């Protein structure tokens, strides 16, 4: 962009100038950026040789109180006299660029962006290399969109709340129910998304290196784009019965807080180096999340957080208007600014901060503190470094969005995440040569809008399930069966049964859509929506061969009926597979790849809906018939357990080596371990020297099948002794492993007992139970003694 402008300067022909300006506009590049020469680049905040903090302070020092207040909203105002244009903080990038916030716009030269699978599906791959590759690809598209003036630089992803209850409408957006997985995913997404290093425009997504993880140098320095750990904290209820997220008071025990709700946030910040934290709508033990100064202080001081804190949208207004926690709008503003929140998604701070200052409830220093965090992040992103086209990422353009590489990655993610739940008598894979016709049934079969799930943008080129099957077998016939996934009418059943009866094989797409589970909407039942179960029954009766049932959606579905029905040969869960979902389903059915995804959430039976969703307790309480939640604590029956997933092969494991005894300390001068009535344990805190205590577990993964494949190996442990509220088991290691047909792969995992095998006691202190522990790998077990 620079060269034509230089030429104009020398030959100022007005017509040419206008023409070129029009061309530049059409190309969608930024016209209006801060520090634009010749007048506005002389401010100290534009000098990239100065330290970040000095540049941030320089801006603040030049603003009047009114101008400062205008910066406290997601739509931050321009400061024309300083050459600063407006900035939109709110862009979304959960599984690709999404138009949910005003920051991302698909109305320019880039009309679409890759819709990768919804997070719960990609997470089911248990593949960290894949997670990093996704974050890198999304960051490349994000920066390209910014260069085209169609996005900001600050993105409000990932969603790392624990998928605590199967009814949660936004569970689909998360990596699932396990805190160790959510923590790992958070670190991978954030560190890669933000990182400068390992980025190469020519190989946009394989550039994400393992090294990035602990790249502490980049913490306070430049970023490619900014990620946000949301929603802090204990946020996992939308609208269920008479509870809504806007007023819900999550009653969380210190124990659950320490070992379920906080670990993902702690990792996201400490290891991921996140530059943003979003405080949630709900209250936590009576106090609105954005007013929890105690928690925000701990995050800054103990976790080293140095980014900005944004509220969820309108989460400050509700503190006064809905929660009635504050007694005036000004008090709500004071509560959050004093607590350490920096910016409000919404206009509440724009409207009420000035009067809060006049009333003496907020000081100008409180605002300056917030602005320092905000401007520091924008400086790190290069916003004040001049023309985006001339910057490090200036060459990222529409060529880098919807690229072949990104489409291949979207395919890869859906393939790796897809979960095979049932395959009786080897119904799958189908053999192409012996098939004359396939019937596809189901309301989602020919609809592209069901592919992405929540927070989807405009897809580059969506492939429906019907498109995908027709690529394999052009004669595939289709009948929706129901008008939509709500399936309130059986009018289409007869047509669908005829279509199914005439085909060699029938594939039925059932399951969930955003109508059943989405933001601001939880499910009340875990069964298939509407008359879908009847549809499955009708089609199963009329199909020639055993039916293949495919389930869409993020949350678990109680499909016990289908699990036990011999007329249903196979069941696949495909989540929200992203824009290439149709191709991936067909590939799975025909055995072009070997399914190896495993569930990231427990599939509970319908009876679980007797458990109140608002009960935040993770631990079971037999005295009141409370079964607990997630694979770590739940004591009831399951439809499919956490980590479940079949393949076209059969895998077996064998421990090769693991220690039998671990000694945690070697000097008697250290304080003795603590104990209670039930078991001895060791307190783990920042002073505990655990780093050197990691041990290696080596094992063999054997593929006893005829097809090569990748799947995740999950290493669990349980302690034989327990204290009150000890988990039944916990995940202490995972890795996706490739094994050749009839081959074996040796795997090594590093386990840190303090980090991975500890849990919280009732006081919320992290402890490690001493004595015998059992490592579990499939059905194999290995016993280990931990001594102090
Ligand atoms: C930018 O800051 C550096 C370091 O203080 C200084 O040497 C340089 O003169 C400044 N540049 C401009 C254009 O002011
Ligand atoms: C795209 O939409 C935004 C917001 O609605 C608007 O401000 C902008 O002018 C539009 N851009 C184009 C090229 O139409
Ligand atoms: C993990 O994902 C990467 C990136 O898609 C892929 O290259 C690799 O094969 C995957 N690993 C396994 C074991 O499937
Ligand atoms: C990317 O490829 C182009 C064209 O092949 C080349 O000119 C450029 O130097 C490459 N960039 C990097 C960072 O490798
Ligand atoms: C919701 O309804 C239940 C039973 O009708 C009642 O006990 C409870 O107080 C209500 N909760 C709220 C937040 O209104
Ligand atoms: C599938 O959907 C497309 C686009 O909505 C439509 O044109 C086509 O007729 C549909 N195909 C069938 C078999 O229903
Ligand atoms: C899926 O949900 C969206 C949003 O509620 C709706 O517009 C669409 O019609 C639904 N599609 C189907 C097939 O149910
Ligand atoms: C689903 O279809 C029914 C008609 O059977 C209609 O009343 C309802 O609005 C549709 N739902 C959606 C989300 O489109
Ligand atoms: C154990 O003691 C030895 C000798 O005092 C010391 O070198 C070593 O670092 C200690 N190990 C741990 C894990 O503290």
Automatic annotation (TrEMBL):
| InterPro entries on file | BXL (IPR044993), Fn3-like (IPR026891), GH (IPR017853), Glyco_hydro_3_C (IPR002772), Glyco_hydro_3_C_sf (IPR036881), Glyco_hydro_3_N (IPR001764), Glyco_hydro_3_N_sf (IPR036962), Ig-like_fold (IPR013783)
BP GO annotations: arabinan catabolic process; xylan catabolic process
Q: Which Gene3D superfamilies match?
A: Glycoside hydrolase family 3 C-terminal domain, Glycoside hydrolase, family 3, N-terminal domain, Immunoglobulins
For this protein, the record's SUPFAM superfamilies field holds: (Trans)glycosidases, Beta-D-glucan exohydrolase, C-terminal domain
Q: What is its main location?
A: secreted
Which residues does the UniProt record annotate as the domain Fibronectin type III-like?
711-781
Q: Which domain of life is it from?
A: Eukaryota
List the Pfam families.
Fn3-like, Glyco_hydro_3, Glyco_hydro_3_C
Provide the protein's localization. Answer: Secreted
Supply one GO CC term from the record: extracellular region
Swiss-Prot/TrEMBL keywords: Glycoprotein, Glycosidase, Hydrolase, Secreted, Signal
Q: Per its record, what are the GO molecular function terms? A: alpha-L-arabinofuranosidase activity; xylan 1,4-beta-xylosidase activity
Identify this protein by name.
Beta-D-xylosidase 6
> Which organism was this protein described from?
Platanthera zijinensis
Gene expressing this chain: BXL6
